[in-house]
Design brief:
- The protein contains 15 helices and 30 strands.
- The protein has three domains: 5-46 and 66-229, Phosphoenolpyruvate Carboxykinase, domain 1 (3-Layer(aba) Sandwich), CATH 3.40.449.10; 233-301 and 387-591, Phosphoenolpyruvate Carboxykinase, domain 3 (Alpha-Beta Complex), CATH 3.90.228; 302-380, Beta Complex (Phosphoenolpyruvate Carboxykinase, domain 2), CATH 2.170.8.10.
- The strands form six sheets. Strands 11, 12, 13, 14, 15, 16, 24, 25 and 28 form a nine-stranded mixed sheet that branches.
- The protein is 26% helix and 21% strand.
- Bound molecules: sulfoacetic acid (SAT) and manganese (II) ion.
- The site of sulfoacetic acid has 7 residues, from helix 6 and helix 7.
- Residues 235, 282 line the site of manganese (II) ion.
């Protein structure tokens, strides 16, 4: 319970609407966690994994139609349509509210309504924000316990400015209907009211649809708050890099999905003496400190990572993080009650239960784990967490890195000429789709700042906000901006760059650039490393390959300009003039090449 009148009134109003049998105020204790597990086991939603293989860990299988975020059911209901912009779905907020009130009427019948007080960011930090999620899903309760700071301590700190988040799986238990393992509804709505700073989510129990502190709050709502208040809420990982001499810089990096963000956040460097430490793997909130530098916090408390592809070889630190006290959703299950997914072991087990609950053998053509199967685990278990990852003041950011999956044209790394040029680089981020997504493989998709599905307002205004924010400080205090591409291929379709732990060599160059050293020469895309300024010692990379990695083609540049020009037209009047100026300069540089 709470003394906070605004909170208790809201909870009462929502209870009247949703008509749960009971209300449970979450305190975040281990006892509460165990009680949720008991309930989830009873309803057949979860199974305890083999204690010897994955101590204190649980396995979940979702409804096969509830396996990922639903972007076409995600809405930004700003008062004016123009404020949602061309990249978001919009509906009139009053009409949407009416629809939602209908859907939520009685939606929690026969269930408990859980009240989850949570803090995004360290509790009490000036940069953090509080929210309260109401949900009828015990799976959401335990997931929020891992992914956010949740419970009684937050409840005591909540004032009137909490973000109200209401969630229902949309499966009431009327007239004694029996519960099912993964209740959800065919109808789904993930709705944001940016002016009201409220979130309503209906019909899904999975990931970002249901754990409302993550994409809904920390990106869509927070990006709007950040615009109003002059800071940045970004889809970025944060890492600390220490050189062999003991110097340290923090970098923030934005990549579209399937570009190895979690791998970079937990990189195991191949170069001796270098250390990479993790602050966050998905979201960064950044504000200017008194010294004029940009400081970032990771608002989250855990990782909700894609399981397939994660192994002791590809990402040992992620693997060590998920070995205990973790939740696994839609992975495959081994005969001895451990989890398995594609890429975990070089040899496939002879028999598994696949994510649909069916027998599976390596002869079968479909993957045993769903491509979007996930592990949910505490950040504090990660062996590479930075000592300042919970610093309430954040960590100072020296470089911002953009990237995408580009088989051609984009070099391994380049540096922006200026903040404005860097904003243009962010605005033109695009990536080739992989087999994991439901699109045609290899298609180039625009994903500005990797924020396409996560920006809570007009993306054109968002570019404007990035331009404006640079005026908050002296230009030499701003982070330098870079672009990387680990995924360039040769004519035979083979990756030119080894990637993974070797990416430290590129981070080293970026590190040297922010230190004011490191050789760079002009290219029409931006400054690229001079020959020999990327440390290739111990790597058997032919000089020819390095040449190819940095080859910049005139024709490709001109057609890129055309592609960007086409894309920019969707923003109409909202596209800042500076973005067109940058495009013109881009064209000019390639015309002269
Ligand atoms: O499901 S989440 O939104 O949390 C993860 C993702 O899609 O990036
Ligand atoms: Mn993400």
């Amino acid at each position: 319970m709470t003394q906070n009148k605004k909170l208790s009134n809201w909870v009462n109003d929502m209870a009247k609407l949703c008509k749960p049998d009971k209300i449970h105020w979450c305190n975040g204790t281990e006892d509460e966690f165990s009680e949720m597990i008991r309930l989830l086991t009873e309803s057949g939603t979860c199974m305890k994994l083999n204690e010897d293989k994955k101590p204190n860990s649980y396995y979940f299988k979702s409804d096969p139609k509830d396996v990922a975020r639903v972007e076409d059911r995600t809405f930004i209901c700003s008062e004016k349509e123009i404020d949602a912009g061309p990249t978001n779905n919009w509906k009139n907020p009053k009409e949407m509210k009416e629809e939602l009130l209908n859907l939520f009427n009685g939606t929690m019948r026969g269930r408990t309504m859980y009240v989850i007080p949570f803090s995004m960011g360290p509790i009490g930090s000036k940069i953090s924000m509080n929210g309260v999620q109401l949900t009828d899903s015990p799976y959401v309760v335990i997931s929020m316990k891992i992914m956010t700071r949740m419970g009684a301590e937050v409840m005591n700190k909540i004032e009137d400015d909490f973000v109200p988040c209401i969630h229902s799986v949309g499966y009431p238990l009327e007239n004694g209907t029996k519960d099912i393992p993964w209740p959800c509804n065919e109808t789904k709505y993930i709705v944001h009211f940016p002016e009201e700073r409220a979130i309503w989510s209906y019909g899904s129990g999975y990931g970002g649809n249901a754990l409302l502190g993550k994409k809904c709050f920390s990106l869509r709502i927070a990006s709007k708050v950040a615009k109003d208040e002059g800071w940045l809420a970004e889809h970025m990982l944060i890492v600390g890099i220490t050189s062999p001499e003991g110097k340290k810089h923090y970098f923030a990096a934005a990549f579209p999905s399937a570009c190895g963000k979690t791998n970079l956040a937990m990189l195991k460097p191949s170069l001796p003496g270098w250390k990479v430490e993790t602050v966050g793997d998905d979201i960064a909130w950044m504000r200017f400190g008194n010294d004029g530098r940009l400081y970032a916090i990771n608002p989250e408390n855990g990782f909700f990572g894609v399981a397939p592809g994660t192994s002791m070889v590809s990402n040992p630190n992620a693997f060590l993080t998920l070995e205990k006290n973790s939740l696994f959703t839609n992975t495959a299950l081994t005969d001895d009650k451990d989890v398995w997914w594609e890429g975990l072991t070089s040899e496939k087990p002879e028999h598994l239960i696949d994510w649909n609950g069916n027998d599976w053998t390596p002869k079968m053509h479909h993957p045993a784990a769903h491509p979007n199967s996930r592990f949910t685990t505490s950040a504090s278990q990660c062996p590479t967490m930075d000592q300042d990852w919970e610093n309430p003041n954040g960590v100072p950011i020296s470089a911002i890195i953009f990237g995408g999956r580009r088989a051609s044209f984009i070099p391994l790394v380049y540096e922006a000429f200026s903040w404005q040029h860097g904003t243009f680089i962010g605005a033109t981020v695009s990536s080739e789709t992989t087999a994991a997504a439901a699109h045609q493989v290899g298609q180039l998709r625009n994903d500005p700042f990797a924020m396409l599905p996560f920006c809570g307002y007009n993306m054109g205004d968002y570019f404007g906000h990035w331009l404006k924010i640079s005026q908050s400080t002296a230009s030499e205090k701003l982070p330098k901006i870079f672009n990387v591409n680990w995924f360039r291929k040769d004519n035979d379709g083979k990756f030119l760059w080894p990637g993974y732990g070797e990416n430290i060599r590129v981070l080293q160059w970026i590190f040297e650039r922010v230190e004011g050293n490191g050789g760079a020469v002009y290219s029409p895309l931006g400054n690229i490393p001079t020959e020999n300024s990327i440390d290739l010692r111990g790597l058997n990379l032919p000089a020819e390959t390095m040449k190819e990695l940095f080859n910049i083609d005139k024709e490709a540049g001109l057609s890129e300009a055309e592609r960007v020009q086409n894309y920019f037209t969707i923003f109409g009047e909202q596209l800042p003039k500076e973005m067109n100026d940058e495009l013109e300069k881009f064209k000019e540089r390639f015309t002269k090449l």
